[in-house]
């Protein structure tokens, strides 16, 4: 009788879980590290339709434009942050997590392999006020380093400014440095 009750309960739990929409299941999952993708999924709708003064610098040549971005445009703009999310099963034990003052810090362990070396989340009023990450990849022929920063305006609780800087070097070629930064109006 006890086995039958356990079996029925297990089937009911499985059915409830499998019938939940994918987004709801993601919210229920306990993630080992700061949910960078989920954070941007919450913040991007707040700035959809906002005007941004965007500065692009490629190897020292700078260009500034004023744009209005949709949600999809913002997701493309922040692709580096989405790529820096370290919540994958293969990285579950790859990072140390520490808190120092108002910072939550995830650092890649020396013996672990991963392109994201560090993520720092600064909290103000129990909500992230800034996020920075550093990623690095290299092999015999290629080197790439990316640093991203995202800062919220504490008065409006919306994105204030951001920057993403990448340096790439391919064997036998000059390095390429690209920096994208933006300020929300």
Topology:
Blueprint: H1 2-19, H2 22-28, H3 36-47, E1 51-58, E2 61-68, H4 71-77, H5 79-83, E3 95-100, E4 103-108, E5 116-124, E6 127-138, E7 142-153, E8 158-170, E9 176-184
Antiparallel strand pairs: 1-2, 1-9, 3-4, 4-5, 5-6, 6-7, 7-8, 8-9
Explain the overall architecture.
- By secondary structure, this protein is of the alpha+beta class.
- It is 26% helix and 45% strand.
- It is built from five helices and nine strands.
- A hairpin with a 4-residue loop joins strand 7 and strand 8 (158-170).
- The model is unreliable at 1-28 (pLDDT under 50).
Task: Tell me which oligomeric state these chains represent.
Answer: single chain
Q: How much helicity do the residues have?
A: 25-40%
User: How many domains, in number, for the residues?
Assistant: 2
The helix/strand class is alpha+beta
Largest sheet: 9 strands, antiparallel
Q: What global shape is seen?
A: globular
**H/E order of the elements?**
HHHEEHHEEEEEEE
Count the DSSP helices: 5
End-to-end separation in angstroms reads: 66 Å
Cα-atom radius of gyration: 20 Å
Strand order of the largest sheet: 2-1-9-8-7-6-5-4-3
Low-confidence stretches: 1-28
What's the total count of β strands? Answer: 9
Can you give the mean pLDDT? 87
């Amino acid at each position: 009788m006890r086995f039958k009750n356990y079996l029925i309960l297990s089937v009911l739990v499985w059915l409830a879980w499998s019938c939940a929409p994918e987004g709801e299941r993601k919210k229920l999952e306990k993630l080992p590290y700061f949910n960078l993708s989920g954070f941007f999924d919450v913040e991007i709708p707040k700035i959809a339709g906002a005007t941004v003064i965007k500065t692009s610098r490629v190897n020292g040549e700078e260009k500034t434009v004023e744009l209005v971005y949709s949600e999809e445009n913002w997701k493309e703009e922040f692709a580096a942050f989405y790529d820096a999310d370290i919540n994958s099963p293969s990285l579950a034990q790859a990072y140390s997590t520490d808190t120092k003052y108002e910072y939550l810090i995830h650092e890649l362990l020396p013996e672990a392999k991963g392109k994201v070396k560090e993520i720092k989340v600064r909290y103000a009023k129990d909500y992230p006020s800034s996020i920075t990450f550093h990623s690095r990849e290299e092999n015999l022929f290629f080197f790439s380093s990316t640093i991203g920063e995202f800062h919220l305006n504490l008065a409006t609780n919306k994105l204030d400014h951001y920057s993403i800087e990448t340096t790439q070097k391919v064997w036998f070629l000059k390095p390429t440095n690209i920096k994208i930064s933006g300020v929300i109006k």
